[in-house]
């Protein structure tokens, strides 16, 4: 017996499938998924998003069908994003707080069809409604105003809650908005409506296809760097998260996902709160592009990335691949 042989063999537990199953540290289930959906006007409409192959904008009847599909697949939550008709977009984004806007009609239709079998998450930010594509109100030099915007976001969030939204998800990155929305929800009797704040949201190049999907990309002048975070910053993300928790967020989001795994990990280690990753549109597009040029297998790439989010500390992931992933997980 030579002393040069290893006495610890890490490969032993990897040798067979049953053993790999037994030793797996992290699991992913369909209940870890949130499925973002794009809503458009009309009836019987399926309008493919060119930069997101496999993703479409659906009219409300199609959205209800997707919602039922989510329930069947075991996906607990859908996230809704409207493609607002051009004539309903304005400088002040007033359509955001019209009780009969596309979002509210979609929320009501889903809640009517699925009731408590499915949670509905709604994005709070003005970009689907503004003629300039920014998430808030702008001044004469196109600076996005904070407190004036928060006042409108409160109306938008209240409007969504009145229509039946279960989780309000402010994605605008204004200061103080979680507190203001929480107060309005409490005063409006929506005590059990949750807030999942986009706490650490970066000014990212990965949002391009999303802006196509909601129709705000072509309208946007400049960028969102005066409110979304600098990708170089990590400590600042922890401060954002700390504030949002103190202001009443039930859970926090890190966005985009894969390029910010360190942020997810640090947030989970430091605060121990439920953390969600948004695997954003550009991340989806990259997986599909790899598959289409034969650079990788879509399903394998997808599942490896999703488990990475869980391993880093996520409670769940928002991903346009949610139905694909759920089907794979359901076998
Ligand atoms: C709106 C919003 C954006 C995304 C989610 N909510 C775009 C942006 O901030 O410009 C991006 C999602 C994605 O790329 O999939 N504030």
Provide keyphrases for this structure.
331 residues, alpha/beta, TIM Barrel, eight-stranded parallel β-barrel, 11 helices, 10 strands, globular, binds ligand PBG
Going across the biggest sheet, name each strand in turn.
1-4-5-6-7-8-9-10
Helix content percent band? 25-40%
Topology, number of strands: 10
CATH class: Alpha Beta
Q: What is the CATH architecture descriptor?
A: Alpha-Beta Barrel
Percent strand: 15-25%
Distance between the termini: 46 Å
Overall body shape: globular
Ligands and ions found: ligand PBG
Order of helices and strands: HEEEHEHEHEHEHHEHEHHEH
Query: pLDDT below 50 for ≥5 consecutive residues: which ranges?
Result: none
Helix segment count? 11
What structural class is derived from the secondary structure elements? alpha/beta
Q: Give average pLDDT, whole number.
A: 97
Question: Total domains, how many?
Answer: 1
Kindly report the CATH topology. Answer: TIM Barrel
Largest sheet: 8 strands, parallel, barrel
Give me the Rg, rounded.
21 Å
């Amino acid at each position: 017996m030579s002393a040069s042989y290893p006495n610890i063999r890490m490969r032993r537990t990897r040798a067979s499938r049953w053993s790999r199953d037994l030793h797996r540290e992290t699991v992913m289930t369909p209940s870890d998924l949130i499925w973002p959906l794009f809503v458009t006007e009309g009836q019987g409409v399926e309008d493919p998003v060119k930069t997101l192959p496999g993703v479409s904008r659906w009219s409300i009847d199609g959205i209800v069908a997707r919602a039922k599909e989510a329930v069947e697949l075991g996906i607990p939550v859908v996230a809704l994003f409207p493609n607002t008709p051009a004539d309903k977009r304005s400088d002040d984004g007033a359509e955001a707080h019209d009780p009969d806007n596309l979002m509210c009609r979609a929320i009501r239709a889903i809640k009517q069809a699925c009731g408590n079998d499915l949670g509905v998450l709604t994005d709070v930010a003005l970009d689907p409604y503004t003629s300039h594509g920014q998430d808030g109100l702008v001044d004469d030099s196109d600076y996005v105003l904070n407190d004036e915007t928060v006042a409108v976001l409160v109306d938008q969030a209240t409007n969504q809650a009145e229509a039946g939204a279960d989780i309000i998800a402010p994605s605008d990155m204004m200061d103080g908005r979680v507190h203001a929305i929480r107060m309005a929800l409490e005063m409006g009797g929506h005590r059990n409506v949750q807030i999942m704040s986009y706490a650490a949201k970066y000014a990212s190049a990965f949002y391009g296809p999303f802006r196509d999907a909601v129709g705000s990309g072509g309208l946007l002048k400049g960028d969102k760097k005066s409110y979304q975070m600098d990708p170089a910053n990590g400590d600042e993300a922890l401060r954002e998260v700390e504030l949002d928790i103190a202001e009443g967020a039930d859970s926090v989001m890190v966005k985009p996902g894969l390029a910010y795994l360190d942020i997810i990990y640090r947030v989970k280690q430091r605060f121990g709160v439920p953390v969600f990753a948004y695997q954003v549109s550009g991340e989806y597009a990259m997986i599909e592009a790899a598959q289409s040029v034969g650079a990788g297998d879509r399903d394998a790439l997808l599942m490896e990335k999703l488990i990475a989010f869980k391993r880093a500390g996520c409670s769940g992931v928002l991903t346009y691949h949610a139905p694909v992933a759920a089907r794979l997980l359901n076998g």
